[in-house]
Design a protein that fits this description.
8 helices; 0% strand
């Protein structure tokens, strides 16, 4: 996995991190990030998927309603959000690689309703599906991708080419790994603290 620390500390740009990467590298990075999430949830139980963790830092500025802005995310919520974000980044990257101009701030997002994620099997299926979709988008890249074509989410933002756009979504997804691990830890602790009823 790429070390995104220098990018997050503003010591390096995504363009610098992407130097020397090709489509095969992106496919490997996709497998690595999905595998890490599958490993993190390898021993969770269905009740852990809907467990609401203690998260005093919760602040979703894009929440549909103000009442949900500080809602702590469940394991299912985090995974559907992270995978949807990476799928959007991959969709943009494919368009950019093909030389297609993307309108300023245009979105290409579809997110499974997190409330539907109620079992471990559904989480694994979501991750497996997301891996397949992203790998197939990478398969659709041309042999000579257009790396001069750029996308901007806002007028003042730095332009991103196909590699940059892919890495920005991967960085976002990687940033959720610690959150997933913490939810799993809290859920496991909550389960272990429940004592069986006396007979």
């Amino acid at each position: 996995m790429i070390d995104f620390g220098p990018y997050r500390r503003k010591e390096k740009t995504l363009r610098e991190l992407s130097q020397g990467l090709d489509r095969n590298d992106l496919k490997q990075l996709t497998d690595e990030i999905v595998d890490q999430q599958l490993e993190l949830i390898a021993e969770v139980q269905d009740e852990d998927v809907v467990f609401v963790p203690n998260d005093p830092q919760a602040d979703d500025t894009f929440a549909a309603a103000e009442a949900k802005r500080n809602l702590a995310w469940t394991l299912g919520h985090v995974i559907v959000h992270a995978t949807a974000s990476s799928e959007e980044g991959n969709a943009h990257a494919l368009e950019l690689a093909r030389g297609v101009q993307i309108v300023l701030g245009a979105r290409s997002r579809s997110e499974v309703p997190w409330e539907q994620m109620t079992t471990v099997q559904l989480l694994r299926q979501r991750l497996t599906e997301s891996r397949r979709m992203r790998q197939e988008m990478l398969d659709a890249w041309p042999d000579a991708p257009d790396l001069l074509n750029e996308y901007k989410s806002r007028p003042e933002s730095r332009g991103q080419n196909a590699l940059d756009r892919f890495l920005s979504s991967l960085s976002h997804e990687e940033g959720h790994l610690a959150q997933i691990a913490e939810i799993v830890r809290q859920a496991r602790a909550a389960r272990s603290s429940v004592q069986p009823s006396a007979i």
